[in-house]
Known about the structure:
Strand content: 15-25%
Mean pLDDT: 84
Order of helices and strands: EHHEEHHEHEHHEEEH
Oligomer: single chain
Structural class: alpha+beta
Amino acid sequence: MEELISKKELLKSCDISYGQLYRWKRKKLIPEDWFIRKSTYTGQEAFFPKQKIIERIEMIKKMKDEYSLDDLQHVFEGNVSVTPNKKEYSSEQFKSYVWDIAENLFEKRNTVSLNETKTLSMIHLTLESGYFSREEVLESAQVYHQNQSESSKLYFLRNKGVFIFVISKEIIAKNPDTKVIYQLEEAQIYNHINQL
C-alpha cells in the first residue's frame, strides 16, 4: 500500500504554504484524486500519496520560475512539453555509469541530440531510483529510445519478480499481482534536462 503524508507534514516538508498548495490544485498541477480525505481525531484531514506529491511539488517549484502555471498544467496533463531550447547537449554532463548503459544504444560523442539526451536522463533517473538492476534499466532505455512520446508516462512494474516496462498514457487494468514500482513523466525528464 502506498505511503501517505498528511497535509500539515507536506507543507512543512516541502516548505510551501496552504495557499500555494490549493492554487496548484486549482490550476490542475496536482490531481484532485491525490487529495485523500480521512477521518482523524480532529475531524477530516487531507492526506496525499507521499512519493508522488513530493516529487510533483519539487518539480513545480523548480519549473515555475521558467514556465507559467498554465504551461505547467499542459505539461502535467501530457498535452505539451516544455522542450528545452537547445538542440544539442554535451555528453560530458552525464556520469560514466549512465554512459555505460547508453553506449549499448548509441555511440558516445561530444554532443548528443535532444532525443539522446532524453534517453540519457531517463537512464539517470531510473538508476538513481535504486529500484532496478542495470539490465532492467538497459531494457527499459532501449524501448524508450525507440518510442519516445510526449503524452505518455513510463511505468516500471513487477509481477512476482518479473520486470515489465510500459509506455502508456495510463495503465487501464493490471493483474492484482502486478505492482507499479516506479513511474516517470516526460515533465520529470525535461526538468532533469533543464538542470543540466
